[in-house]
Amino acid sequence: VAAGAVDLGGAIFMVMGANVGTTVTAKIVSLGHITSKAEFRRAFSAASLHDTFNIITVAILLPLELAFGFLKTAAGYLGAIFIDVTGVTKPENYMKKATKPVIEWLGDVLNGEGWLLVVSILITFCMLFCIGKLLKSLVLKKLEAFFDAYLFRNAGIAFLVGICLTVLVQSSSITTSLIIPLAGAGVLRLRQIFPFDIGANIGTTMTGLLAALAAASAVTVEPGQSVPPEIVAGATVAFAHFLFNCTGALVFMPYAPIRDFPVKIAERIAEFCLRNRVIPIVLIVLVFYLIPIAVTWSTVSGALKAETAPIEQPVTGKADANGTRKLDGNATETGD
After folding, report:
1. In terms of residue numbers, what domain contains 88?
2. How confident is the prediction along the chain (336 residues), in pLDDT tens digits per residue?
């Protein structure tokens, strides 16, 4: 945005798309339960709940933003207010710090081999299978009672747990994916998970907000000078992301019947995918990869064609009685 490659309005629409795209992680994790129909129905429903909520929120806010630009206006206003905040430091990502040494070591040992991706996917599915078996055989009932009594006792508590846990790990993909094995094992129900997902959506925006405010507080602005545009742009986009997710929460959180709407859609999607085990894989590839790539390619190719198209020069000069038009220089054009 600050470099001028994308304007603020375009960045806000990219934030909407990113909110939908980030839910693919939970979808992939749910495939680890595909060998058991009962587990897969619960796990895929829980994974579908997050992207269903985000898609509905985009369907509501996208036309409003195109028509009125209220997110752009409100985010710009908040960014201008909070840009002068001082003393904010960028939050540490302890998850990355904990995993970075192992990732670097594996990169050195395996030397970036392509089969590493296949191995990591297989390990992930084995891990999910073991987690499901462990939950069933050891602590399923105790864990379910603990969640029901404390962390997921009601929608408000689950919402706050989603915010706090996501702020700690700084990734909604991590928190929503961790919930999938619990849903597959029957520990958590969809109506408990949905407020948690909404809270995770808001929690993931805190990192961007704090990073933008930390960048603003680190800049020294002399009296009479304005804040650098890249700082203002970063804060504005961060607030747009925050406002988008808060608006979705305000739509669904206050009323239980409204919260049931995405739950029922997620259950229908899971039931449909149970007809054939290929359907969920095709659905993931189609919705999260092929359609976005096709739309992006169509847009980019159209823009490139418009830029490279030759510009026709208007013909100047006056036509005589025979229909001959005298052009610039000595050339003539006849009307035949």
Report:
1. 8-275
2. 655 567 778 888 998 999 999 899 889 888 888 888 898 999 999 999 999 999 999 999 999 999 998 898 898 888 777 765 554 445 555 556 666 676 676 666 666 566 766 777 677 667 666 666 665 555 556 667 777 777 888 889 999 999 998 888 878 888 888 888 888 888 888 999 999 999 999 998 887 787 777 766 666 655 555 666 666 777 888 889 999 999 999 999 888 888 899 999 999 999 999 998 899 999 999 999 999 899 888 887 876 777 676 655 555 555 555 555 555 555 454 544
Kindly state whether residue 118 falls inside one of the protein's structural domains.
yes
Cα separation values, 32 from 29, 52, 125, 138, 310, Å: 6, 20, 5, 20, 53
pTM: predicted TM-score of the whole model, two decimal places: 0.76
Would you say residue 316 lies in a domain?
A: no
Q: What is the DSSP string of 140-167?
A: HHHHHHHIIIIITSSHHHHHHHHHHHHH
Local structure of 319: helix, strand or coil: strand
Domain count across the chain: 1
Contact 119, 169 (CB under 8 A): no
The first and second tokens of residue 120, run together, are 């990591």
Determine, yes or no, domain membership for 74: yes
CB 206 within 8 A of CB 238: no
Check: CB of residue 86 under 8 Å from CB of residue 247: no
CA 148 to chain centre: 29
Two structure tokens written together for 270: 């899971």
| Residue at 3 is within a domain | no
Place of tokens 């409204």: 258
